[in-house]
Amino acid sequence: MKTTLLKDFLKIIAKTNDNTIMGISHNTFDIIGLQFHPESIGT
Fold first, then answer.
1. CB 42 within 8 Å of CB 16
2. Tens digit of pLDDT for each residue in 1-14?
3. Rounded distance, CA 39 to CA 13, Å?
4. Distance, CA of 34 to CA of 32 (rounded, Å)
């Protein structure tokens, strides 16, 4: 996902070395979203 596609109320909280978004949070509410795959060494 390109960072320009994120809405203003979302903030990137985690990225990989190649800038792939792995985590976002909401600026107002206590909500986060994470990309996690336990079978993958990359997460």
1. yes
2. 566 677 889 999 99
3. 22
4. 7
Decide if 21 contacts 10 (C-beta within 8 A): no
Residues near 26 by Cβ (< 8 Å), separated by ≥ 6? 9, 10, 11, 32
Q: How far is CA 15 from CA 4, 11, in A?
A: 15, 11
- In this predicted structure, the answer to whether residue 22 has a pLDDT above a threshold of 80 is yes
Residue 27: what residue type? N
- Please write down the HEC assignment for all residues of the chain: CCHHHCCCCEEEEEECCCCCEEEEEECCCCCEEECCCCCCCCC
